[in-house]
Amino acid sequence: MTDLDVFITGLPKAELHLHIEGSLEPELMFALARRNGVALAYPDVEAVRAAYAFSNLQDFLDIYYAGAAVLLTARDFHDLAMAYFDRAAADGVVHAEIMFDPQTHTARGVPFCAVIEGLVSAMAEAKTRHGMTSALIMCFLRHLSEADAFAVLEEAGPWLPKITAVGLDSSELGHPPQKFARVFAAAREHGLKLVAHAGEEGPPEYVIAALDVLHVDRIDHGNRALEDAGLVARLVASGMTLTVCPLSNLKLCVVGNLIDHPIDAMLREGLKATVNSDDPAYFGGYVADNYRAVAKARSLTRDDLAQLARNSFTGSFLPSAAIAANCARLDAYLGS
Ligand code: ADE
Ligand code: ZN
């Protein structure tokens, strides 16, 4: 471990872009498959890991949805989330906003309440065990219909007090934000915050539509916004947070090499970029690994890393007093 590695691990940070299903490590996948009597397509953990070679987002999604088949009960979702919270705490995460995909589970007959009860109980345990705060982002699968998304929002009704935001994920190309304009408007009426994956594979126009049509509070990824100077200026002026995921970008071929990753270009432009892990079990690293990978590839300074951590707090959906307290904790760390 270099001094910089130690600095990065200890840096108090929030994680704002993490799919809880994407934190399912192959070891836990096999343990849950055994516990639930679910057959897997792979003989062992090594074979699963060997299958994690993707050329694009869809390649990954096909394997990711298949892996989620082992998750059946509230206990499974609890165990999945606790494994993530324990790992994230070791990476200096003090607040996590975690996405979940109810449709991936309800389509297999898993009750919505099993998913959310398991996650909510783990969130309470993460607070007790690690002092970590967390929030839930319920995502709509964009390859499914608007009617399906409305059905999820309806089913989530009794649980809305436990849900902070809705999001939009899955296959981006061919499924522009416009498809979900009405369901996002309804979610906003419920007082929910709004986020959407945009500009991961999709063009800058999808980022513009996420802003103008969905009225999002945050953009997930946003890499391709850099192709449009006017859009960059707009994102800078509005202080819009981008939840950037470097190792995901590498694994899904959004960038060919981390040496070409735009994270520092984003900071120099004045964009409010953050660093996150997306689907850490599939992309080879948790949040501190992502910080380390770009720090090395792009020669980031300690000031850059501190700015990324600060952006993660100011871009979070925490109340302003908690944001201030976390920024003070970061300042104390930097001054120590
Ligand atoms: N679901 C899980 N990870 C995703 C990603 N990176 N993009 C879109 N949908 C996802
Ligand atoms: Zn994502």
Structure description:
With 336 residues, the protein is α/β, with parallel strands linked by helices. It contains 17 helices and eight strands. The chain has a single domain, classed as TIM Barrel. The longest helix has 19 residues, at 112-130. α5 (74-90) runs parallel beside α7 (112-130) and α16 (302-314) packs antiparallel against α17 (320-335). Helix content is 52%, strand content 14%. β3, α8 and β4 form a beta-alpha-beta unit. The structure holds adenine (ADE) and zinc ion.
Spell out the blueprint of helices and strands.
Blueprint: H1 3-10, E1 13-19, H2 26-36, H3 45-50, H4 57-67, H5 74-90, E2 93-100, H6 102-106, H7 112-130, E3 133-141, H8 146-155, E4 165-169, H9 181-189, E5 193-198, H10 204-214, E6 218-221, H11 229-238, E7 241-244, H12 246-251, H13 263-269, E8 272-275, H14 280-283, H15 287-297, H16 302-314, H17 320-335
Parallel strand pairs: 1-2, 2-3, 3-4, 4-5, 5-6, 6-7, 7-8
The protein binds adenine and zinc ion.
Strand content: 5-15%
Total number of distinct structural domains? 1
CATH architecture group name: Alpha-Beta Barrel
State mean pLDDT (0 to 100 scale).
98
Tally of extended strands?
Answer: 8
Measure the end-to-end span. Answer: 19 Å
Q: What is the count of DSSP helices, taking H or I runs of 4+ residues?
A: 17
Could you say what the CATH topology is called? TIM Barrel
Features of the shown structure:
336 residues; TIM Barrel; binds adenine; alpha/beta; eight-stranded parallel beta sheet; binds zinc ion
Task: Describe the structure concisely for a colleague.
The chain has 336 residues and is α/β, with parallel strands linked by helices. 52% of the residues lie in helices and 14% in strands. It has helices at residues 3-10, 26-36, 45-50, 57-67, 74-90, 102-106, 112-130, 146-155, 181-189, 204-214, 229-238, 246-251, 263-269, 280-283, 287-297, 302-314, 320-335, and strands spanning 13-19, 93-100, 133-141, 165-169, 193-198, 218-221, 241-244, 272-275.
